[in-house]
Specification:
There is one protein chain. The protein has about 375 residues and is an alpha/beta fold. It is about 35% helix and about 15% strand. Helix 8 packs across helix 11.
């Protein structure tokens, strides 16, 4: 009987940033250094093993002070970590398909493939990037030229926001581009939808992404006795909080501490400036899984993840609108709980979790291998049924 190629195990190499390799991740997780709703492996990519794949992930090579200095110097010059990819080249080039998580890994793998002799077989490269479209115009001419040369050689470019994907299609019209909805682990029973409302209203905001809008958040509730807020962030906002008595800047050092803070909160607010990479989506998904209603700036393509029936959206740079949204949501128990429940249902049963995110990678990879290298596929690919 002839075997069906579609039934064969797909050999996948997932190239991740240094300190995010499988071994390093486990060591950090065992020490409690990775805080959040996470898998035992980075981002849950190993779930692909349940979908007919053999998954290998990048590992961190030992470094002396000198070799680390050299690696960081090369990274600073290029804008991506080439030496980390070089140290993982055996796994990269023995795979059928390579997945990357950000542009630092994508560009490095693409450069390695470019430097490889043309007669050598190379894997299919599905190059995911996050911030490159946001900062494209800010790159030097030399870096833009290099990045354009490399990214156009990807078999597919993937992005976490439809805004970034749309810009990439204009920049790389001959390269397939897909929007993939990023999702986190959604299999733990964390949700508590029916939550007691407190006075003052307890507001939680989180994250250190450069696209967080701390100014608008602080202006919306500054020293208003109706609100008590906690800001979990490593961002440098100490000067902004000078004289502000109702916002405390904290850090959650363990998952137990993070869980306690989620249980404390009445509402999670994600305040953003305009961006192209769905800034805040991880925080939003963590809040949703804990059954907390979310108010977010309408930016970064977030409405492609959750609709206004599931999250409360406010315009950018509008403290008054944010304050009004908090009052409206917290003043209507039925609406607040209904939104939280609909958002939670979408995450657990829809395409907004890590399993569907990985399944989409598997679908795209198998499609490329089935058509060979005779041409690029076009159009969207359905999310895999395994989710």
């Amino acid at each position: 009987m002839t075997s069906n190629p579609a039934d064969a195990k797909l050999r996948v190499f997932v190239h991740l940033a240094r300190e995010f390799g499988r071994t390093a991740w486990k060591q950090r997780r065992d020490k409690g250094e990775i805080v959040g709703i996470n898998h035992d492996d980075p981002y849950g990519y190993r779930q692909a093993e349940e979908m007919g794949c053999v998954v290998e992930q990048s590992e961190d090579a030992p470094e002396s002070s000198l070799t680390r200095l050299v690696r960081l110097g090369v990274r600073a010059a290029l804008g991506f970590d080439l030496l980390h990819a070089w140290r993982n080249r055996k796994g990269i080039f023995s795979a059928e398909v390579v997945w990357t998580h950000t542009e630092s890994q994508a560009l490095a793998v693409l450069l390695l493939a470019r430097l490889r002799r043309t007669s050598a077989k190379r894997p299919t490269i599905i190059a995911q990037t996050v911030w490159v479209m946001d900062f494209w115009e800010s790159y030097s001419l030399l870096h833009r030229t290099l990045y354009r040369c490399l990214l156009r050689r990807a078999d597919m470019l993937t992005f976490l926001s439809p805004s970034a994907a749309a810009k990439a299609r204009r920049l790389f019209p001959d390269t397939p581009v897909e929007f993939l909805k990023y999702g986190i682990r959604a299999d733990e029973p964390l949700d508590v939808i029916h939550r007691e409302r407190h006075t003052p209203i307890r507001i939680l905001t989180m994250g250190k992404d450069r696209h967080r809008d701390w100014n608008t958040f602080v202006a919306a509730i500054r020293n208003d006795p109706r609100y008590q807020a906690k800001a979990l962030t490593g961002a440098k906002i100490k000067s902004l909080l000078a004289g502000v008595e109702n916002i405390a800047c904290e850090r959650a050092k363990t998952n137990a501490e993070l869980r306690a803070i989620f249980q404390w909160a009445d509402v999670v607010v994600v305040c953003l400036v305009d961006n192209l990479h769905a800034s805040g989506i991880t925080v939003i998904e963590e809040a949703v899984l804990c059954g907390i209603p979310v108010i977010s700036t309408d930016a970064g393509g977030l409405q492609s993840y959750f609709t206004s029936e599931e999250l409360t959206y406010v315009p950018a740079n509008d403290p008054k609108a944010l304050g009004s949204a908090i009052d409206l949501l917290m003043g209507n128990d039925a609406m607040r709980e209904a939104k939280a429940q609909r958002a939670l249902t979408r995450m657990k049963s829809g395409d907004l979790n890590s399993r569907s995110f990985v399944a989409r990678h598997v679908e795209l990879s198998r499609r490329f291998l089935q058509i060979g290298r005779t041409g690029h596929p076009s159009g969207a690919v359905p999310v895999a049924a395994e989710r």
